[in-house]
Design brief:
The protein is an all-alpha fold. The protein has a domain at about 50-135. The protein is built from five helices and no strands. It is elongated, with a radius of gyration of 28 Å. It starts with a helix and ends in a 17-residue tail after the last helix.
Length: about 190
C-alpha cells in the first residue's frame, strides 16, 4: 500500500506544471531554447530600409555599405561583366539598396546560433544566390552601369510611369465644389 501511495504522489507531481525558472528543466543547463531557459528579450522588428527616413535611413545605409564593401563584395562579388554588371554608386539605386538590405537582414538572422548549423547554408541557398542574380542580371537595375572595371559607369534608369488609373484620377475635372465628380468621365 505504501508503494502505491508513493507512486500516486510521484504521478501527481509529474502531472503538475513545472515551476517557472531555469531550475524547472533538466535541459536548462544546456541553454536549449524552449527548455527551461528564459525567453530572450524581444528585438525590435526590422523595417525595410526604404521605409526609413532621415538620419535613421543614413545610419542603416552606412551599416549596410560597410557589410557590402567589407564582406559581401570581397567574398561574393564575382568579376564585373556584361552578364554581371555592378555600380560603384549602388547606394543611389533604390531597388539595389532594398535587395541588399533584405539580404543583409537574412544574413544576420541565419548566422545567429539559433539558426542552427545549417543556417548559413540556408542563407546561401535561399537568399544569396537569388538576390545577386536579380541585382546583377544583364537586364537588372544595374544594367546601364559598369560592365567592365576599366569603364566605370553609373546611370539611373527611368522607372515606369504611373498607371493609367492614377493619371486619370490626377487629371479628373473638379465639380462646382472643386473636387472631382465620382463616376464622371474625364476629358
Amino acid at each position: 500500500m505504501e508503494q502505491s501511495a508513493q507512486q500516486a504522489r510521484q504521478l501527481d507531481h509529474l502531472a503538475t506544471d513545472p515551476a517557472p525558472g531555469p531550475a524547472s528543466s533538466p535541459f536548462a543547463a544546456f541553454g536549449m531554447p524552449g527548455f527551461g531557459t528564459p525567453a530572450s528579450t524581444a528585438q525590435p522588428e526590422p523595417r525595410p530600409i526604404l521605409e526609413l527616413e532621415g538620419e535613421e535611413y543614413e545610419d542603416e545605409l552606412d551599416a549596410l555599405s560597410d557589410w557590402v564593401d567589407d564582406f559581401l563584395l570581397p567574398v561574393y562579388g564575382a568579376e564585373v561583366t556584361t552578364a554581371a554588371p555592378w555600380c560603384l554608386q549602388w547606394q543611389e539605386h533604390d531597388e539595389v539598396v532594398a535587395w541588399l538590405h533584405a539580404l543583409w537582414l537574412a544574413y544576420q538572422q541565419h548566422k545567429d546560433p539559433e539558426a542552427g548549423l545549417a543556417g548559413l547554408f540556408v542563407w546561401h541557398r535561399d537568399f544569396l544566390t537569388h538576390a545577386l542574380a536579380a541585382i546583377r542580371a544583364p537586364g537588372g537595375p544595374l544594367s546601364a552601369c559598369m560592365t567592365s572595371p576599366e569603364r566605370p559607369a553609373h546611370r539611373l534608369l527611368p522607372g515606369p510611369p504611373p498607371s493609367a488609373r492614377t493619371e486619370k484620377a490626377n487629371t479628373a475635372e473638379p465639380d462646382a465644389t472643386g473636387s472631382p465628380e465620382p463616376g464622371q468621365p474625364t476629358s
